[in-house]
Each structure stands twice: as structure tokens, then as C-alpha cells.
């Protein structure tokens, strides 16, 4: 009778990685799909789970070697809400302002972490950055002084218009509320200021003067 050794073995194949149930070809195809703007659910149409796609993505991140010898001449930085997998609520996105291409995404948008990240680039590389396009966050001034000695801050015009619009609306509401408890004439002013709020934000060159509304 054969002797019981209590040993086990695993079959090996050239089409599979060791201890992996997915073929090399499938892993490679999923890796290619991750280059495109697709959701994990779309990529999972290869009859794998979302978790499997995420696992392959994390493995790719481990092998990624950032190029710390290049920075674009114009770097656009903005913040966005992080996904649930991030420890920090807000992350940063960096875009090449001349090529209109994604440069990188920083998981942590805090100033200390951004300084730590960009200091990994050589001083020679950091001096090549000429324009840092951002919102009105005052902390970026310190980022310029510490990290990018040859760059100047350019405020994104979207944030300028957003800032103006926000304060204009606050002023409109403040004036509008003054007519809220007045007589009938003032009540009409209140309702017109409330109803036609979009008209006040419209470009004056595009306003139909024949259809203008009188507040009085």
C-alpha cells in the first residue's frame, strides 16, 4: 500500500501565474482596459468581479515608477472629493495646462503633503514650472515659495467667476429680503428679485432689452 505523506501539490501551467485563478492573458487585457476611462463595472464584463479589477489595479500601482525628472511648464491644480477608499476627504488633480492632459492625481490635497510630493522632483526640474494655475486657496502661495521658485500663480478664471457669482447672489438675497415684509409694491420687488435671479447673472450683451423687467 502507498504510504500516506499528508502532502499536497498544486498544478502549474504556463497560462497562469502561481496561486492565481486568472490567466495571464486575462490579467493583461484587464490591465489594458484600465488605461481607458471606464468604470470597474464595465471592465468586469470579462466575467470577473469589481474586487478583482481593483486588485489588478492595485498591483499595477505597485509597479508604477513615477518620472521625477519632468514637470510641465504650466500645471493646473484643483481639488475634488475623494473616493471612499481614500483616508482624506479631498484629493488633488494635476493637469498639464499646455497639453490638456492629466499629469497626476494626489490622494492628499493638504499643503504639507503636496510639498512633500513635489520636493521629490529635482530643483532643476521644479524650476522649469512657470505657471501654477489654481483656485483662490491662499496656501498655494507657500507652495510656490517653497517648491517652485520660478513659477507664478495664475488664478483659474472659473473660480474668479464663481467667486463673483456667489457674492452677487448673496447681495441680491440681502436686498431681496428687505422687501419681504413691506407693502404690496415692495412685495412685487421681492418676488421679481427672487424669480428672475438668472436674469441678473446673464451677460448684459445677451439680455433682450425689449423683454426687460422693471423692479418698481
UniProtKB/TrEMBL annotation:
One Pfam short name: DDE_Tnp_ISL3
Residue ranges of domain Transposase IS204/IS1001/IS1096/IS1165 DDE in the record: 75-210
Protein name according to UniProt: Transposase IS204/IS1001/IS1096/IS1165 DDE domain-containing protein
UniProt source species: Vagococcus elongatus
